Amino acid sequence: MASFDTASPHRIAVLGAPIDLGASVRGTLMGPAALRTAGLVPVLESLGLEVTDYGDVGIADVAELRDEPPASAKHYRQIQRWSRVLARRSYELAQTGAIPVFLGGDHSLSMGSVNGVARHCRDIGRELFVLWLDAHADYNTPETTITANMHGMSAAFLCGEPGLDGLLGDEPRVGLSSAQLELFGIRSVDKAEKDLLRLRRVSIVDMRAIDEFGVGVLMRRILDKVRARNGLLHVSFDVDFLDPEVAPGVGTTVPGGATYREAHLIMELLHDSGLVCSVDIVELNPFLDDRGKTARVAVELIGSLFGQQIIDRPTPTNAIVPDP
Q: For residue range 285-318, what is the model confidence (pLDDT) as tens digits?
């Protein structure tokens, strides 16, 4: 069986998931096309990576199940179909040894993409940790949600919270423990959601912590934790993690997000770690963007995640800057 080669990630598998039913604002179904138009594949190929673009997954041939839909989960039937096909395709792509990069689409796609990758990690005896770069915790359930939008339930579903138990049908559901989820950049959490996060003791790095300690220190703590457990890392990158001035093309903007340089440093540290085995890029809404600005920024950040550098020679950490 093939396995992830994170020490030398020469092969990338790109798959689009044009879904926007999980969000309150339509338009993220155009996200995969916008990321491709902004040059995602050429940027990755310029780094010496072998990239296979599998196009966009669809649900036209996926049958509906007959389980009882939750009362507070909008568009449950359609998202159930998306989740099932993505769980299967992500598992198949992970088995090839390539690093899957899923182009969204709203964040509900992670209920399928992460599950499939986690299933493969279980097969090869590795723990999967999930770095959730997002303004929101996405840890609501049908019981706690205010909006009933399913993109706000994706992290909770992945950690085995009840309420969406039949979502994947016959596809194996691989529940993560709350210790395997790392919420980073959070600045908007509902009250009932906050109570549940505290009960589960989910690790949260909010923007105050980033302001106080900086992304370098906080990211290294996460990477050290994953490395100590011989784990692998899925990066679920919601573009509303970024400050709206940097990334206006999202339907759920929250002021006070990560800066351009903070985001690049995070991606550079992730690349240096050699732990990343899969990636989501979600919630890009070209309909709300400013002449493709958000799509271009997202592509630049994914470039940093896969090794693009500002200069050819990295600055030594113990470098002494000479006097002028």
A: 999 999 999 999 999 999 999 999 865 434 544 4
C-alpha 108/C-alpha 153 separation (Å) is 7
Q: Is 120 a catalytic residue?
A: no
Q: Assess whether 283 carries a catalytic annotation.
A: yes
**Domain limits of the chain?**
11-305
Q: Is 171 labeled as catalytic in the residue annotation?
A: no
Residue of 240, 268, 280, 289 with catalytic role:
240
Residue 282's beta-bridge partner residues?
238
- Between CA 60 and CA 252 the distance in angstroms is 28
CATH number of 11-305: 3.40.800.10
pLDDT by residue (tens digit) across 103-123?
A: 999 999 999 999 999 999 999
**Residue 8 contacts residue 306 (beta carbons within 8 Å):** no
Active-site residue, 68 included: no
pTM of the complete model: 0.93
224 is catalytic: no
